[in-house]
Amino acid sequence: MLSLAKWNAYYRLTRLDKPIGIWLLMWPTLWGLLIAGLGKPDLHVMLVFVLGTVLMRSAGCALNDIADRHWDGAVARTRLRPLATGEISVKEAYLVAMGLALLAFMLVCTLGWQVVAWSVPALFLAVSYPYTKRFLAIPQAYLGVAFGFGIPMTFVALQGQVPALAWWLLLANVSWSVAYDTAYAMVDRADDLKVGIRSSAITFGRWDVLAIMACFVIMLAIMARLGVALGLGWPFWSGWGLAVLLILRQYQLIRTRHPGLCFKAFLENVWIGAALTVGLALAFWLS
Description:
Layout: H1 4-13, H2 20-36, H3 43-67, H4 82-85, H5 90-108, H6 113-132, H7 139-148, H8 150-159, H9 164-195, H10 200-204, H11 208-229, H12 234-254, H13 259-285
């Protein structure tokens, strides 16, 4: 039997002790489910995507730590991760990642061959993202595609097609991901420069705060355009307005570039996603 210490190491490897990543992946998936399902997505489809989100985020964390195992020990924020400390072997981490991905795939198989086909590029994005930090100037944009790829999949599952609206929704998520993950990267900028990992915080340089706010504006503009196109009522606009206020708070947190405040800003993005999701859901349910 596995010891309690080993279970704890697996728990931290899959980042279940830090569920913000699950929420940041869940919110755009729920946007897709709500819009594709006109506010009432099929329960089975919804359960598959919700459980799949948890499983794939956990698998992605394990894969990320495998890719970064030679660097994590040199970065203050990541030096105590299980692979960096030797609590878990690379083989064990691979087995965890593959096991979780297999469970997610089994769930997807219940939704038909079209969704299964779309799950292949989704898996590729999840597996390849950790390595983009070696060569892409803004790997956060790639993360946004990976985190948002559940959006077109929800439309395939519920409508059998991927309309233009779904791609706009994905673009909104990419913009949002670049915004919040740049704030996250600002925490590690000094360490990343030392070990040679690339990030949007490094690429944007002294324009980092402006770039983050510009990405937020793009996300808000796309969501507003979709709200108009869908004829959504006051609940959506209330959620959208709350998101604006939360984004203004983001500026107050990141403008000094203090690592602790930048990390706090990153964490608070969960509430931006929540405001938009709840507003979207209520707009459908109360119409």
